[in-house]
Amino acid sequence: MKLKKPRPLSKGDTIGIVAPSFFIEKEANFKRGVKHIEDLGYKIKYGKHVFSRYRNTTATANERVEDIMSMFSDKDVKAVIASDGGCTTIEVLDKLDYDIISNNPKIFSGFSDIGHLDLALLAKSNLTTLYGLDVVNGFGEKTKDNISDYNIQFFKKLTTSTESVGLLPKLKRWESWRDGMAEGYLVGGWIDSISSLANTPYFPYFNDIILFWEAIDLQPHNLNILLNSLKISDLFKNIRGMIVGNFVNCEEKEYWDCTPTIKQIVLEATESTKIPILANVDFGHSDQHLSIPEGILSFMDSNRGIIEIKESYCE
User: Fold this and answer.
1) What is the Cα–Cα distance from 240 to 249, expressed in whole angstroms?
2) How do beta strands 297-301 and 166-167 pair?
3) Where is the LD-carboxypeptidase N-terminal domain (predicted)?
4) Cα dihedral value 102, 214, 58, 203, nearest 10
5) Which partner for 185 in 206, 217, 232, 305 could form a disulfide, CB atoms 3.0-4.6 Å apart?
6) 88: Cα within 13 Å, side-chain hemisphere
7) Are residues 139 and 97 in the same domain?
8) Given strand 130-131, what is the order of strands in its sheet?
9) Phi, psi of 10, deg, nearest 5
10) 167 three-class SS
11) Which among 36, 285, 289, 302 is annotated as catalytic?
12) What is the CATH number of the domain that holds 293?
């Protein structure tokens, strides 16, 4: 796969905001996120339906597609950032014009349910995206200990240079769940989006994958089902390493007295692969929003607790 990489951002550039999934519920977060983007020196352009509301999303799937395509077609827009996550992004995947997107590569960032779009853009347009900051829960999150500044500054480092960022920084201690080293292409995001798109044309397959994933509101027994479904798919054949992010509200409720721990579930599901696993990494549904570039060649050493990005995100 020949990656399509975006150009780096410069001060004065225009960033387009789209809402592929949830409507804007956290208005204070949204306003704060927009201000943080503007404080970096960028101008804002809003999709036509960003401030609309339709059921549990902003607009019909076709209208949301219209917003996304207008941003990728607009020569003045240099990056596209999702407003929030949600649960309806998958509705737009079969309606996008991936050739137009491929011919107009731009920075794209979002996480959670937007992970469906991150994976689809990589698979269908060969576009490397960022599983990272959205407006509401990324740029707009109010956190302790200046974590938001850390998240934003790392986003800036990725998106304003044509050099590799090298080693990923740490906010906390990462854990080796299985020692080892691996080199491969970063693919992943929200575990639900990975499992729903695996074995479809909207999942990017590389010969050597470092799979990264995180979870929210997922009981361990359901995680066991998802991981084992990936195990019996073709995906595990291509995985050379695994990076596990944050778990939020993932306590067992239904089988609380007899379910193994998340670590045990992950180790048993991957036992036949013997792949190295690095866990507790700073990304996912928490205030730690390390932006992970999809499709980029990387190296991991779980014993030493390092992840190295070996090529640039922008060019």
Assistant:
1) 28
2) unpaired
3) 15-132
4) 30
5) 206
6) 19
7) yes
8) 43-46, 14-18, 77-82, 107-110, 130-131, 292-293
9) -130, 155
10) strand
11) 285
12) 3.50.30.60
Q: Are 220 and 246 in contact (CB under 8 A)?
A: no
Beta bridge partners of 17: 46, 81
Q: Rounded mean pLDDT of 260-281?
A: 97
> So what's the pLDDT on residue 149?
87
Burial (Cβ within 10 Å: 0-12, 13-18, ≥19) of residue 186: buried
Average pLDDT (154-178) is 96
Residue pLDDT, tens place only, 185-207: 999 999 999 999 999 999 999 99
Compute the half-sphere exposure of residue 307: CA atoms within 13 Å on the CB side of its CA.
Answer: 32
172: containing domain:
166-309
Q: Residue 144's pLDDT is what?
A: 66
Closest CA relative to residue 34, chosen from 147, 161, 138: 138
Q: Which of 36, 66, 141, 214 is catalytic?
A: 214
Cβ-count burial of 52 within 10 angstroms (0-12 exposed, 13-18 middle, 19+ buried)?
A: middle
- Which listed residue (109, 112, 125, 298) is catalytic? 112
> According to the model, what pLDDT value does residue 84 have?
98
| Domain contains 8 | no
pLDDT attached to residue 288:
86
Mean pLDDT, residues 274-296 taken together = 95
Mean pLDDT across the stretch 286-293? 92
